[in-house]
Amino acid sequence: MPFLDNRADDSHRYPQVEFVQGESTELVGAVGVLALAQGSLGTMRQCDDDILARVRACHGAVRLRDLGLDRTERRHAQKLVEARALFAYPHGVVALPGAGWDLILARVHGGLITCLHAVKHYGYPRPRLWAPVHLAVPHTSNRAPLRGEVLHVESGLELPPLAQFPVAPVPLMLALYLRCAPSREGPLMACDAALHQGHTSAEAVATLLRGPGSVQARGRLALASPRARSPLETLARLQLHDAGIPFVDGVDIPRVGEVDLLVAGWLVLELDGYTYHEDEFQFARDRTRDRELIKQGYRVARFTRKDVELGKVGAEIHQLLAAGNRSHSRKRPKSA
């Protein structure tokens, strides 16, 4: 029978089996090579991803030697630079695309970001102006500036772990900012915010005031106040100080609450930011406070942000005080 004949005819079976087996062997070999290639590629990608993750863990910029890479990892890091997945900077620093220059320069110099750029990091109010990056660096650092950065040499400077952002602690940052800033407004806005939020104390800052500019810095620090609740209060307070007008800030008045500034015991200064004019509830609340102050014998002078920024506070308060004094004089009873 055909079926029996086919089973008995070895010449029709074995060659076919041998042919299929040979083809299978070649296929298995090709698959093996492909698997090895894919495995090698996967290992390379894993190494690249690991290096990028380690740089990311350092906030996006680090000296390669601080990562402790082995020879293979250093080759991968170089390839990442060539592929522009990392950017290389002097002294062995690499950074992810988009890393800030303050961070990159801190890594290059082995220092800490301070002054205006540190103020920004901490979220304190700051003037709207450009300034070069300022860094606190160890006294052993002898690297020249790369992009006009200002280097403050600090003996005994302690650097944080790589996983911590390289920014100066609040007291040191404020001490350096008070010393080096060309004007006092910026440092005092930052000081007031830090003191008000309890991030440091005037005493802690004062102990760090040493070296050039410290005498000026102590005079500035004496003008700081933990009661200031906004940068407008800081600026208005400085204008009153310059005008020689005595004042008290952060005064609590019964049935009114805390007012910004009190002059001569009867003139209340309230400072309104732009948001106040956009908030109907706040607008109504302020007018209720004004009426209560008037009932208690106070007079109220409100200044907008623009008024304060234009420096109008000192001169206008002088005028209001003079007008108030004339009014009080007219009300005095004549002597018999």
From TrEMBL:
InterPro entries assigned: DUF559, Restrct_endonuc-II-like
Annotated Pfam families: DUF559
Span of domain DUF559: 267-320
Domain of life: Bacteria
Cited SUPFAM superfamilies: Restriction endonuclease-like
Protein known as: PF13338 domain protein
Lineage of the species this protein comes from: Bacteria, Bacillati, Actinomycetota, Actinomycetes, Actinomycetales
